[in-house]
């Protein structure tokens, strides 16, 4: 190979005669600058050869310009393949040419030579620093052109080119798209959520876009591409490489109406050190950014983004200091001719370095994708590293072997070494870390491409690998059967109990050094979280049934009845050596149980419902014996048989909840009917699974019957038949209220369920103060709390007298401080507040209690005097023996729409309540049994006599939840209403789920007041408006993802919206007007690196644009012939040209708590996020049931 091909000659003007003259002069006389250039180039044969070629160009440049040329003005490196047939070109400033590097070492030497020339500067791409054109010639023509070899050389005819970056970028930008996507489910290395990235067109005829693997994603996604002219098309993922960071998406080119599509050619052979590049893409979330850089390395190790994340390996990466960041993943790395020389993939989080994937394997995969064939990928489940020769010698490489390899691959500076071998893989127990790879199939190899070209073309075939092992340089040859890499890359998952599980992928197995396979928890959801089997856990067995793979897991779960409590064995990938056994609560009622399989033809995942659970009863009657308690712990021995442990698990974050698991202590207050009371920190809302443990032995389900709207307690019931002969003892309530200075016993349950007892004294009886929380949630108000001296730590308990008679519940209060941090504190709740609710239940009646729907607080008489309180009222208050010399006043209105709030105003001082002075919270009990209460208030210095209507205290809060587009929607609950002065007319967004359409457009805590211009005032009106929109979408879209999903649902469930409304009203009536006890049946109910897209947030509100891509499936095509019912008010589809609806967008008007109103457009996804609703069901285990809404 002629090294003279590596040089280029710079000049301002040249022609054939001048070139011949220069060649003759060089044969007859030495160049005066030759020695100077040699000194700067260094010693050695290769450097002398290089400096001589440089000097040739120097002398020729002097002759052509008619002046002396400084050696520092010489710049340019010839780039040509010896086998190339092209003649050469004159290239303008900043231009680059096609090139294949001899070796990375030579590139570094040349780069070093340039840097050693004083005063030189690089324009990054081999252009002329003097501003003139550069002569570029192939290596096999250069010696002849110089006249130093063959006098009969063929004449050279240069071609002129004036390519500029401006022209290149103007053309290339049309091929680059901005991608917005959603991981709709957590899967493998990915978690659900929105992200933005970049891609570029590599096949304009087929609409194929190249981007990164972590953009295309192995997980289910929905993606959109925004073209340079702001047209929008839907993307479907068609290929993602199992290891390397690239993948392909596709769109329907017929959906692009207003621009001509152009593709960017892939030219990995053009990459070289010193190449001037531009990275063009969606950097930092911007629509278009252009970042400049110069390739500095071609042999960087693949970047590491952290254990458990996606990581590339078994490849080199290119490196430049282009400072790319979030959103630029998938950007093309362009040369000045508009060719993609690499694919932007990642960058350093604390430096400007950016990392690019070479395109060699990308070009190979693209050919298979274009042909509609599977891309063959082989693996030995072995990670290789590239070591330089000096390190290889330390590992045992002999000099004789090194000499042979260097002769065979003169451009290589190292070889491959085994880094890790996964257990149970094809190379397990044969290859070991440190083995130096010499040959594959008896052919010498030295880099990644050589090795994996063989493996990828030998899937399910036998290959031989020869390695050097150990300090004694033992030469070993092994035969392996190449495994199909796609077979250990999961393409299916199971949704169960709100969680997602899939088989452990090669990616994660490689990251943690574990064997491939096993049931991996991608997200725990409701059911797996009950056993603390969090993400990145591997499930070994369920209910003592081994689960080595996903099929075994499906079979094991299919044997579990709904509501059962079963053991689950698992370990975390971080601590694979340490297995855990926990108890899991089986959930088949809150969430669907189904399997999804990836379909690369449609770009979607096809779901199949798994068989229903067995109908057998999960709970059988059992008897437990309470532990014996010493008499020295009296009165704990009296109280302990009345204590129970309560676990509460929420399936959804509604009613302002931020956690999903709660536990605490309950007190049995009646066995006939069976009743338990506990605080609202243990059971904060009505939706969830309740489990009650008796005597630390028997666990049975519980059922909520009453949530007190103001006081910190709830009432539960349970199926007493499940306890058999367990000696449950109800607690006895005392009629004596505790006062300041009274002695009592604090008896509670510790964290280990052991009794805790202490004799103490009441230090204070005063108001319980709590703050409004964010997000809004229930808080205690209008109640007094009992404080004691030096309380001991407990999960809950009671304050009782020496005989064990309960005088107060010892309960936990939850609130927030002024900074919004959650806080808790313990206090006593007088049993008189509890008895008003439990006594009606004991009589078989539902409590019918009334209340004033305002928040009260107390005011000192001195403050009241300043507000106009007369001496007569002061004397009357002070003469009352039970008075605390304080007054009640209205602190806030809890619901501005209630009748009570129309009569009372903030700041009203309560002078009389039902004819008696009101000086404490207990006086509010006078309003509990009347529909109107007579109140005398002091307002702005004037006395007013008011007849204020009371409101019923319904022992429930939320009684219906609608899940739509990933948003959990409900009517506003009390905690929300108290934080709004003017309550909007609409439905309330309580939560949005990651990866859903709602998570990118809506935010929790807003009201939806209109859907597509239709006002909504309640959940029924909201569902009607949604149904109206869906009808229009089906009529306007043909074959789109949205339309296919809606028709799928129609095929499966049929038309049921009318039947649903009656069912909804029936369940609402059941919850609003319960009679008696509703539960009396038997049974249970990231090396400092970052992947780019992780730093770019998705758009908050997607904006509709004129075009979209369509994806059709077989079932969708079959549904095309269905007649879609039309609404009388719907416009004719021929008259309605609504671009937003044609793309699946819905327009929503929302209003925030501060009154701000905005309109957003949200793209729906009915395939992965169907519409369902949660309704009360007295016959189910939990008291609720989930229903699909069509």
Automatic annotation (TrEMBL):
Record's keyword terms, sorted: Hydrolase, Protease
Region Disordered, residue ranges: 22-49, 86-108, 1116-1140
A GO term, aspect molecular function: serine-type endopeptidase activity
GO BP, one annotated term: proteolysis
SUPFAM superfamilies per the UniProt record, alphabetical: PDZ domain-like (SSF50156), Trypsin-like serine proteases (SSF50494)
Transmembrane segments: none
Domain PDZ per the UniProt entry, residue ranges: 393-471, 855-941, 963-1039
Highest taxon of the lineage: Eukaryota
Keyword Protease: yes
Family the UniProt entry places it in: Belongs to the peptidase S1C family.
Protein name: Pro-apoptotic serine protease NMA111
Species in which this protein is naturally found: Entomortierella parvispora
């Amino acid at each position: 190979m002629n090294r003279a091909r590596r040089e280029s000659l710079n000049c301002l003007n040249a022609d054939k005669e001048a070139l011949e003259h220069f060649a003759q002069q060089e044969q007859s006389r030495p160049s005066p600058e030759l020695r100077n250039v040699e000194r700067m180039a260094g010693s050695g044969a290769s450097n002398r050869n290089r400096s001589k070629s440089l000097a040739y160009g120097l002398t020729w440049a002097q002759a052509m310009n008619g002046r002396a040329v400084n050696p520092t003005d010489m710049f340019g490196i010839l780039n040509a393949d010896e086998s190339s047939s092209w003649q050469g070109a004159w290239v303008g400033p900043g231009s680059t040419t096609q090139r294949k590097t001899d070796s990375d070492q030579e590139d570094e030497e040349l780069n070093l030579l340039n840097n050693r020339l004083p005063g030189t500067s690089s324009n990054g791409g081999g252009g002329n620093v003097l501003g003139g054109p550069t002569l570029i010639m192939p290596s096999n023509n250069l010696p002849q052109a110089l006249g130093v070899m063959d006098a009969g050389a063929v004449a050279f005819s240069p071609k002129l080119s004036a390519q500029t970056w401006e022209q290149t970028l103007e053309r290339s930008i049309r091929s680059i798209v901005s991608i917005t996507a959603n991981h709709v489910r957590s899967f493998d290395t990915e978690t659900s959520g929105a992200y933005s990235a970049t891609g570029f067109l590599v096949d304009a005829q087929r609409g194929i876009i190249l981007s990164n693997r972590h953009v295309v994603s192995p997980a289910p996604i929905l993606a959109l591409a925004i073209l340079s002219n702001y047209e929008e098309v839907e993307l479907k993922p068609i290929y993602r490489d199992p290891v390397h960071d690239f993948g392909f998406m596709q769109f329907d080119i017929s959906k692009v109406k207003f621009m001509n599509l152009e593709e960017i050619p892939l030219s990995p052979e053009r990459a070289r050190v010193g190449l001037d590049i531009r990275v063009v893409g969606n950097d930092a979330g911007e629509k278009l950014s252009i970042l400049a850089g110069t390739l500095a390395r071609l042999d960087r190790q693949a970047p590491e983004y952290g254990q458990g994340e996606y990581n590339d390996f078994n490849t080199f990466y290119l490196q430049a200091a282009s400072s790319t960041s979030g959103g630029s993943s998938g950007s093309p790395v362009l040369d000045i001719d508009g060719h993609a020389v690499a694919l932007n993939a990642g960058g350093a989080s604390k430096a400007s370095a950016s990392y690019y994937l070479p395109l060699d394997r990308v070009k190979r995969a693209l050919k298979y994708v274009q042909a509609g064939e599977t891309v063959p990928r082989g693996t030995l489940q072995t990670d290789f590293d590239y070591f330089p020769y000096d390190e290889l010698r330390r590992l045992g490489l002999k000099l004789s072997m090194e000499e042979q390899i260097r002769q065979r691959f003169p451009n290589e500076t190292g070889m491959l070494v085994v880094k890790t071998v996964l257990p149970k893989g094809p190379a397990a127990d044969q290859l070991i870390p440190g083995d130096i790879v010499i040959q594959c199939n008896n052919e010498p190899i030295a880099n990644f491409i050589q090795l994996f070209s063989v493996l990828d073309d030998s899937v399910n075939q036998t290959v031989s690998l020869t390695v050097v092992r150990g300090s004694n340089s033992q030469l070993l040859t092994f035969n392996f059967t190449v495994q199909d890499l796609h077979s250990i890359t999961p393409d299916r998952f199971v949704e169960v109990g709100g969680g997602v599980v899939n088989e452990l992928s090669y990616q994660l197995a490689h990251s943690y050094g574990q064997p491939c396979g096993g049931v991996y928890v991608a997200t725990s959801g409701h059911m797996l979280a009950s056993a603390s089997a969090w993400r990145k856990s591997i499930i070994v067995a369920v209910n003592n049934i081994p689960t080595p793979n996903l099929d075994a897991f499906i079979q094991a779960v299919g044997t579990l009845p709904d509501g059962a409590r079963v053991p689950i064995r698992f370990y975390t990938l971080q601590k694979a050596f340490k297995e855990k056994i926990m108890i899991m609560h089986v959930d088949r009622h809150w969430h669907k149980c189904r399997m999804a399989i990836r379909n690369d033809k449609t770009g979607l995942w096809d779901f199949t419902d798994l068989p229903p659970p067995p109908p057998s009863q999960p709970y059988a009657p059992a008897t437990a014996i309470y532990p014996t308690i010493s008499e020295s712990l009296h009165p704990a021995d009296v109280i302990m048989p009345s204590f129970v442990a309560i676990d509460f698990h929420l399936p959804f974050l509604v009613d302002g909840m931020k956690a999903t698991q709660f536990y605490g202590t309950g007190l049995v207050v009646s066995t006939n009917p069976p009743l338990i009371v506990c605080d609202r920190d243990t059971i904060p809302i009505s939706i969830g699974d309740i489990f009650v443990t008796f005597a630390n032995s028997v666990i049975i389900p519980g059922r909520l019957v009453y949530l007190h709207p103001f006081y910190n307690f709830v009432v539960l019931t349970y199926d007493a038949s499940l306890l058999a002969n367990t000696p449950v003892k109800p607690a006895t309530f005392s009629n004596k209220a505790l006062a300041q200075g009274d002695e009592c016993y604090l008896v509670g349950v510790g964290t280990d369920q052991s009794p805790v007892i202490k004799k103490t004294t009441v230090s204070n009886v005063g108001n319980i103060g709590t703050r409004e929380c964010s997000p809004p949630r229930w808080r205690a108000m209008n109640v007094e709390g009992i404080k004691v001296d030096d309380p001991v730590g407990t999960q809950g308990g009671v304050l009782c007298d020496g005989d064990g008679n309960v005088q107060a519940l010892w309960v936990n209060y939850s609130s927030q401080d002024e900074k919004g941090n959650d806080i808790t504190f313990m206090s006593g709740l007088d049993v008189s507040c509890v008895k008003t609710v439990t006594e009606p239940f004991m009589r078989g009646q539902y409590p019918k209690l009334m209340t004033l729907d305002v928040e009260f607080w107390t005011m000192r008489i001195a403050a009241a005097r300043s507000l106009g309180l007369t001496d007569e009222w002061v004397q009357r208050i002070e003469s009352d023996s039970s008075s605390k010399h304080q007054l009640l006043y209205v602190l806030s209105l809890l619901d501005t729409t209630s009748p009570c709030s129309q009569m009372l105003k903030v700041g009203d001082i309560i002078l009389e309540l039902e004819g008696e002075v009101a000086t404490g919270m207990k006086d509010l009990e006078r309003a509990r049994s009347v529909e109107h209460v007579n109140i005398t208030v002091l307002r702005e210095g004037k006395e007013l006599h008011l007849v204020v209507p009371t409101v019923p205290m319904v022992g429930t809060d939320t009684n219906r939840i609608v899940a739509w587009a990933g948003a959990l929607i409900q009517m506003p609950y009390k905690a929300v209403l108290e934080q709004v002065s003017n309550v909007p007319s609409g439905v309330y967004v309580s939560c949005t789920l990651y990866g859903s359409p709602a998570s990118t457009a809506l935010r929790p805590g807003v009201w939806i007041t209109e859907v597509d211009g239709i006002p909504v005032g309640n959940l029924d009106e909201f569902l009607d408006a949604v149904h109206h929109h869906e009808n229009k979408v089906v009529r306007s879209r043909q074959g789109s993802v949205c339309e296919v999903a809606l028709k799928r649902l129609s095929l499966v469930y049929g038309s049921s919206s009318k039947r649903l409304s009656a069912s909804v009203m029936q369940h609402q009536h059941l919850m609003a007007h319960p009679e008696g006890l509703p539960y009396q049946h038997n049974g249970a109910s990231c090396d400092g690196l970052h992947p780019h897209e992780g730093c770019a947030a998705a758009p908050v509100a997607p904006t509709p644009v004129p075009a979209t891509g369509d994806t059709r499936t077989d079932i969708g095509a079959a549904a095309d012939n269905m007649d879609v019912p039309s609404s009388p008010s719907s416009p004719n589809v021929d008259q309605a040209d609504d671009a937003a609806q044609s793309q699946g967008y819905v327009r929503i008007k929302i209003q925030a708590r501060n009154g701000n109103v905005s309109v957003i457009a949200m793209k729906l996804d009915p395939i992965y996020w169907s519409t369902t609703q949660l309704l009360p069901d007295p016959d189910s285990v939990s008291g609720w049931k989930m229903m699909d809404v069509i």
